[in-house]
Specification:
The chain is an alpha/beta fold and 190 residues long. The protein contains four helices and eleven strands; from the N terminus they run E-E-H-E-H-E-E-E-H-E-H-E-E-E-E. A hairpin with a 5-residue loop joins strand 10 and strand 11. The chain is globular. The mean pLDDT is 85.
Length: 190
């Protein structure tokens, strides 16, 4: 009997402030303090991911964090940067700093990724990229951590100008540091 193939999901995930910002206006993420509990949550999440997609600014931040040791290298992880401005290395067409640069149709790109066998796909960081994925209805699930802080101003998690998308809550957990973790699945109900 053939093995049942479970479709890969695109999971949009990030930490946000209570008032809906993914970073301070200057891009600072100092409110995202990862303790032992947070490390365990992220390890569990990334155990089910083998592909990451992010925008140019988020990728630049990841490169800095990798160099400083804040986040480890992830061997075996396919990493993509969606950008029209980021140029690939001359010696490695389509590649830059360990990322594959993507600048074409998001829908075609995601369909290609979903046809491949593998684990889920993490869409991380970048409100503008999140907006583009939501506009093209490419987000299957959300994994959002809400930190116990109000910024009053910053980079919004969900900049406007995309059609309504409905999700259903599948998990809600509170943590000792005062944050809340939310998981949602795409609901096709109107």
């Amino acid at each position: 009997m053939p093995r049942k193939v479970i479709p890969r999901k695109v999971i949009l995930g990030f930490g946000i402030s209570l008032d809906g910002y993914i970073a301070r206006r200057n891009g600072d993420l100092d409110f995202l303090v990862i303790d032992k509990e947070g490390e365990a949550i992220m390890a569990d999440f990334f155990a089910n991911i083998d592909t990451t997609i992010m925008g140019r600014k988020t990728a630049a931040g990841w490169i800095k964090m990798r160099k400083s040791g804040e986040i480890p290298d992830t061997p075996g992880m396919s990493t993509y940067v969606v950008s029209r401005r980021w140029k690939s290395d001359k010696s490695k067409p389509g590649k830059r700093d360990g990322f594959e640069v993507v600048n074409g149709s998001l829908t075609a790109f995601v369909k290609k990724l979903k046809r491949r066998t593998g684990k889920d796909i993490y869409l991380g960081g970048g409100g503008e990229l999140a907006r583009s994925f939501l506009a093209e209805d490419l987000v299957d699930a959300l994994f959002i951590g809400i930190g116990p802080v109000l910024f009053g101003d910053g980079i919004p998690a969900f900049p406007g100008k995309f059609p309504q998308r409905n999700f259903k809550l599948t998990e809600c957990k509170s943590y000792a540091n005062g944050s809340v973790g939310l998981r949602y699945e795409r609901s096709l109900d109107s």
